[in-house]
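2.7 Reproducibility. Because tokenized structures are sensitive to small changes in the input, we list the exact sequence used for Histidine kinase, including any N-terminal residues retained from the expression construct. No trimming or masking was applied before prediction.
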Amino acid sequence: MKYFERYLLLLGMLVFLLSPFLLSPFSVFEAFQYPQYQNVLLAKIVINVLLIGVFIFNLKVLTPRLLDNKRAVEFAFVLLALLVCFLVVDTFLMRQVQSPFPGPGLGNGPIGEPRPPRPRPDGGIWGGLVNFPQLIGNLILFLVIVLSSSILVLLRERLREEDLRKQILYEKVKAELSVLKLQISPHFLFNTLNNIRYLARRKSDKTEEAVVELAQLLRYMIYQVNDDRVPLSKEIEYLQRYIKLQQMRLQAHTQVHFKFAGNAERHSIEPLLFIPFVENAFKYGVHAHEASNITIELTVSDTELHFLCENSTFGGAVLPELGASGVGIANVKKRLQLYYPHRHRLSLSELDGKYGVDLTLQLTHG
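Resulting structure tokens (single pass, no recycling of outputs):
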């Protein structure tokens, strides 16, 4: 973008520099047949060079150092001095050369021939003071040059500030997400180690297998979740490993149903969004003696992901988000607001002996 802007400015300056030739009523070859008209064109080119110099000076020095730093009085003073100098030089140059042409086909001679040069008024090169139409035209041109370069500088600065603001916001959100992810790790580890301790106390043959599964889960958490997004297939595999680990301690009266439908390969999501809900399902949805059911379903379409997690509740159980493990649910809610603003729906409910989590995410490919 910077190179494009630079080339565009150079092209504009070149066109402006050659504008006396481009706007001449004669072709370049015809114009150079008349020495006096050559002088007029060269004088106008010199004036344009001065205006380009004013443009660059204002673009690189005046506006960045004075106007953009709230030094408007100094800016106006320097600008006025430049304007006076420019008008003096402009008047001097244009008084040195008088255009022999009012235009093609006009004048006192035959069509297409120049009229005789007008005599210079008495009083030397400053005789007759100034040509007011020319003065006003050049004044307007000068102001347009200054205004356009100042607007360009101020616009650049505003865009730079906006980019900086967005970068700061991005870094802030990224830091907040990192903190939230770090909260999940000890919460997850605490719950999982409790399960392994239970197996160890019973001297279960599954203890070693549980440790291996935990190692795989921790590997995922350490290496994968550093990324902002992970393949949905990896997240599902992670959930399946966690469910397998939890099932090692469950009795026959506890039924766990996991179902996935859709194409997981086409999508990626932010990591560890579902695990707090699943943790709570195993923590609050399993009874030592009564029949318990846990249902976890994931359905993926081209544009949406639907996650449903239901578990049995037992006499007066407190909703997880209000209980001791509420940090996990609150964590997910914050992350959803940051990851999927206005692109998610989350509802928590308790009805007919079941506690349910219903989450819908609007997906983008990739």
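The first strand starts at residue 230 and ends at 231.
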